[in-house]
Amino acid sequence: MMLKRRKIAPWLFLAPGMAMFLLYVIIPIGQSIGLSFYDWDGLGEKTWIGWHNYIELFGDDAFYVSLKNNVAFLTLYMLAVPGGLAIALFLNQNVFGIRLVKSLFFFPFVMSQVVVGLMFSWFYAPNFGLFARFIGWLTGTQVAVLADSRFAIYGIIAAGLWPQIAYCMILYLTGLSNISPDQVEAARLDGCKGPQMLWHIILPQLGPATFIAVVVTVIGALRSFDLVSIMTNGGPYGSSRVLSYYMFEQALSEYGYRMGYGAAIAVILFAIMMVFISIFLIRMIGRERSV
Amino acid sequence: MKISTWNLALAGALVASLASKAMAGDLVINTDASDPAPKKAWELIVAGFEKENPDIKVKLNTFDHEGFKTSIRNFLSADAPDIVTWYAGNRMAPFVKAKLFADVTDVWTDNKLDDAMKSTAASMEMNGKKWGVPYTYYQWGVYYRKDIFQANGIAVPTKWDEFVAACAKLKAAGIIPIAIGTQAPWPAAGWFDYLDLRVNGYEFHRDLTAGKIPYTDDRVKAVFAKWADLVKPGYFVENSAALKWQDALPLLTQGKAAMFLLGNFIVAPAKEAGLTDANFGFFPFPEITPGVARAEDAPTDTVHMPAKAKHKAEAKKFLAYIARADVQAAANEALGQLPTNNQSAKPNDPFLQAGFDMLSSASALAQFYDRDAPADMAKAGMEGFQQFLAKPDNVDQILGELEKARKRIYK
Question: Above 70 in pLDDT, residue A78?
Answer without folding.
Answer: yes
